[in-house]
Amino acid sequence: GSTLGILGSGQLGRMLAMAAAQLGYRVHIYAPESGPACDVSAAFTQGDYDDPAALFAFADQVDAITFEFENVEPVAIAQLGARRPTRPHSLSLDIARYRVNEKEWAARIGAQTAPWRAVSNLSSLKTALDEIGTPAILKTTLFGYDGKGQARISDPADSAKAWEEIGSPTLESGFPAILEGHVRFFAEFSVIVCRGVDGSSVAWDVPENLHRNGILATSTVPAREAILAQAEKATAYAIAMADKLGHVGVLTCEFFATADGPVFNEMAPRVHNSGHWTIEGAETSQFENHVRAVLGLPLGPVELTGASVEMQNLIGDEVDAWHDLLAQPGAHLHLYGKNDARPGRKMGHVTRLRR
Length: 355
Ligand code: ATP
Ligand code: MG
Ligand code: MG
Known about the structure:
Layout: E1 3-7, H1 11-22, E2 26-31, H2 36-39, E3 43-46, H3 52-59, E4 64-67, H4 74-83, H5 90-96, H6 99-108, E5 112-113, E6 116-119, H7 122-132, E7 136-140, E8 150-153, H8 159-165, E9 177-181, E10 187-195, E11 201-203, E12 208-212, E13 215-221, H9 225-245, E14 249-258, E15 261-268, H10 278-281, H11 286-294, E16 308-315, H12 322-326, E17 331-335, E18 346-354
Parallel strand pairs: 1-2, 1-4, 2-3, 5-15
Antiparallel strand pairs: 6-9, 7-8, 7-9, 10-11, 10-12, 10-14, 12-13, 13-16, 14-15, 16-18, 17-18
Helix pairs in contact: 1-11, 3-4, 4-5
The structure holds adenosine-5'-triphosphate and magnesium ion (2 copies).
């Protein structure tokens, strides 16, 4: 077979499509709306993620399926998996997209997390605050990204305000919110691994990640010495997680570097913004290895191609300076082809490589 199906039309889908195209595969995107990924793909089907008939018709036209984000129901991925190789499979999605499962599985592999309580309503939030104390962070359990769906609580008297701030969420089954104790970290980093169908994994060097306003600003490799001292342990956790899930493809785990060692924050069952540096900075990028894994091909080497590399996101109107970036030697510019530079929107990134 030679067509890769991708659910999602954002920039991650776009960069996956470009990697697949380089390997000679055709790409077919399925998404509710045509986005940047569609610009580089041969085919596009517009459809909702909760429309089984449309999803099955899409599956019939491709040879393998993957997804670029977590807004798909795990049951849809399981159904697609019965028709075509769909990777990663629904378990990875089910665990990684729901913060309660994520924390429980972190404990199962023996990784530390922030102290946490699942929260179902304002009164259970108050109980959780009594137990965990302040400062704390209230998060929705589903669909949060770029720090959206979160409220910081420094005083228990602010619990009602925080509950409203995250939208007073409800869920038919499961917990709509989670309260986390504030972790005192000195840095943040991520572990990006890719596991193949044969069960072998590769792990890239860990990037140090800087966030601004809850949004990733930069990823830098190599990370500082104090982070590197925790990287081996964190990488072992990420590989253990991928193995336990039977994950196929890229799995990204975010960690806090603390005085007590690495603390697991969250994971994504997919390629990740903190891995964009791998396009120029590693022998094989996260996108290419994900495509290879999904298609059942051997994984490529992940060694660094230079001495150091930094990825900087271009957010909102930061993208206006793109012309100047082209004049900088060693700067590799990636624009996602989005028209509307809204504040907080990821418009592109630039990678600076030092040989
Ligand atoms: P992403 O875009 O990475 O998916 P997200 O919206 O899922 O982000 P988190 O990664 O959970 O959110 O949190 C965003 C940022 O907020 C973290 O990178 C970290 O800087 C801070 N943060 C989150 N949880 C905690 C915590 N328990 N203690 C301290 N800081 C935290
Ligand atoms: Mg997240
Ligand atoms: Mg995060």
